[in-house]
Amino acid sequence: MEKVILHMDGDAFFVGVETAKNPKLKGRPVVTGEERGIVSALSYEAKAIGIVRGMPIFRVQKDFPQVIILPGDYAAYSRYSALMFDIVRRYADEVEEYSIDECFADLTGLDRPLKLSYLQIAERIKKEINEELHLSISIGLAPTKVLAKVASKWVKPNGLTVIKKETALDFLRKIPVEKVWGIGPKTAEFLQRRNIRLAGDFINKDLAWVKNNLAKPYEELWRELRGEYLFKIDPVPKTVYSSIQKTRTFHPLTNNPTFLLSQLSKNIEEACAKARHYDLVPKKVSFFLKAQDFKYYICAVKLSSPTNAPEIITALAENKFPEMHRRGILYRTTGVTLQELISNYAVQGDLFGGKAKADKFELVHKQIDSLEEKFGKRLVYLASTHQALKHKEKGTQTDDLDRNLLFL
DNA sequence: TCTGGGGTCCTAGGACCC
DNA sequence: TCTGGGGTCCTAGGACCC
Lowest CB count within 10 Å: A7, A27, A119, A271, which one? Predict the structure, then answer.
């Protein structure tokens, strides 16, 4: 039986939720991202007057004084996201939560028991999300995930588009190849140089050409675009991470090792806090500095004993720092990635007491975590992070920060 | 898109072995 | 001292996504 895959995509989702919370925002130019200093989401009205994602907030304030600027409210976005997916689950069992505002659902064979056509099922989902949550979404229906993505983007906002195997080519002849899910700038450029500009041009190439010229994932993409169902719906809710990353870009750029290390220390504290929250420990950690020209200077360390204690990981970072740091290069970003995460429960003791030492630190941090939950963030942090916070909050009294210093 | 932050997956090539 | 052929495992880095 031919598959029927639904793809649902929130319209300007963060702003949509803000409008649902406060209906007075409806029809107004609204952006979110105040806390980050750049526009992270924008209403269609804001888009219409020339605002784009990533635009600095100060520019919006200066050039578009009529725009309403809001800080992100991620707790609300997660709540609405869950409610939205619950509505999809009223109809389909197989729902894959792909991102905070997108999901796939397998509707195949549900028309009979529900006594509704596939189109009617999609219409109901859309109507219920509109009426119950006051959110606008767009839906695509197609025989594969990739085609369903194409369909949901075809009419936006508030769209509902069906692509059948027979009509796929007509759609794909109107879609630039770089707009296809999975084809990024590099592959798009490669294809365009060979005169493949539209998704339709791409699927008109034969399989041998695809195999000879592109990597394996693109062969699957090519098949999916031609209507062959390959990318399965994965309904397992995402509870585990395989890596956790924390990065921060700063201005002005710098070469100062002390500054860079304190930024890295802050990255490490944040990453470790997240890992503790999920009871995960990394078997491997990598640090990086990103230079002015966006080149990465990376070093990776295998942990003899997996831990999420920031004291241990910052000590590693300090040891490895000279391997990444070059004199005379300006850096824009520091970052840490905790890799090969495993459940803390599964960690075995080692011969040299590394595990016992890590356990002590982890216990202290668990207690700090619960205090911070009660009394707010940044109650306590490592001395090595101190400078990074001073930098961020320059202009405020550093006395308050000094009071909370914890030397371990 | 002159470039923020957080993820996943794939692959080429080196290390090591027979 | 120089030379095959073939296999596995691992890792760094590329490419892509939202």
Answer: A27
